[in-house]
């Protein structure tokens, strides 16, 4: 990998820089297992592949809506300010966030060592870096992981909602990250562990889309638009 071929690297956060995709995954499992059980829906319980097929990488309320649609269920949209007990798309998403916040507070977060090694390397090559995450928790996770100071540009779920940008798999948040860095998408590399995210990078016309396989699978990431797939970002050092 010759980093002089590129001006910037845009990183997804959960599952790329920090192992928090797993924390989100558990929170979604707890939410939907409770939800389906309480409603007596037992014919198709929540299973692990539901996360990768319907939720992974998408903004909070899109994840709720898309999972419910997989079970032919719909709920009123509600408002982001809905309490976590509201039977709305936003209420369920906020309930999931209660599970996520509790786990983050209890467990803390350490970044992936290989990802830190790549960030250290990019600091020496002068490559610009940004975080592009669907999560509204991205600033808190970056802070908890000790990575916040490394990124001047962070396009997170809250920023996207305020700017009216559609979330992944739409390319808009990655394009906004490149715009804020002042680089052409064709000269930037996207790092993503979710199929929705590699699709966003591919459709945004980025110079290279790297799939990071943390469980989605090489085939799914390649089919989604990844140009190459790695299991650790240290593979891209030097
Ligand atoms: O609910 P939040 O923190 O805004 O996160 C939304 C999504 O953020 C993404 O980064 C994760 O891959 C998803 O699993 C998560 O659901």
From TrEMBL:
Database matches in Pfam families: Hydrolase
Entry-linked InterPro entries: B-phosphoglucomutase_hydrolase, Beta-PGM-like, HAD-like_sf, HAD-SF_hydro_IA, HAD_sf, PGP-like_dom2
Name this polypeptide is given: Beta-phosphoglucomutase
Family of this protein: Belongs to the HAD-like hydrolase superfamily. CbbY/CbbZ/Gph/YieH family.
Origin species: Microlunatus sagamiharensis
Keywords on record: Carbohydrate metabolism, Hydrolase, Isomerase, Magnesium, Metal-binding, Phosphoprotein
GO molecular function list: beta-phosphoglucomutase activity; hydrolase activity; metal ion binding
EC main group: isomerase
Catalytic activities: beta-D-glucose 1-phosphate = beta-D-glucose 6-phosphate
Enzyme Commission number, as recorded: 5.4.2.6
């Amino acid at each position: 990998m010759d980093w002089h071929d590129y001006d910037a690297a845009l990183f997804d956060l959960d599952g790329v820089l920090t192992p928090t995709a797993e924390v989100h995954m558990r929170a979604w499992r707890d939410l939907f297992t409770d939800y389906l059980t309480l409603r007596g829906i037992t014919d198709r319980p929540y299973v692990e592949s539901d996360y990768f097929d319907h939720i992974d990488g998408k903004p909070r309320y899109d994840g709720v809506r898309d999972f419910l649609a997989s079970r032919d269920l719909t709920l009123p949209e509600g408002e982001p300010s809905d309490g976590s007990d509201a039977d709305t798309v936003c209420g369920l998403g906020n309930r999931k966030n209660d599970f996520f916040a509790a786990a983050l507070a209890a467990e803390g977060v350490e970044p992936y060592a290989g990802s830190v090694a790549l960030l250290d390397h990019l600091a020496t090559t002068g490559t610009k870096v940004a975080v592009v995450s669907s999560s509204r928790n991205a600033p808190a996770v970056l802070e908890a992981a000790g990575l916040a100071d490394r990124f001047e540009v962070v396009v997170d779920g809250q920023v996207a909602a305020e700017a009216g940008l559609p979330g992944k798999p739409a390319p808009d948040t990655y394009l906004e990250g490149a715009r804020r860095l002042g680089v052409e998408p064709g000269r930037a590399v996207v790092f993503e562990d979710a199929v929705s995210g590699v699709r966003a990078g591919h459709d945004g016309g980025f110079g290279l889309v790297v799939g990071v396989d943390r469980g989605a699978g090489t085939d799914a990431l390649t089919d989604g638009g990844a140009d190459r797939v790695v299991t650790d970002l240290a593979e891209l050092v030097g």
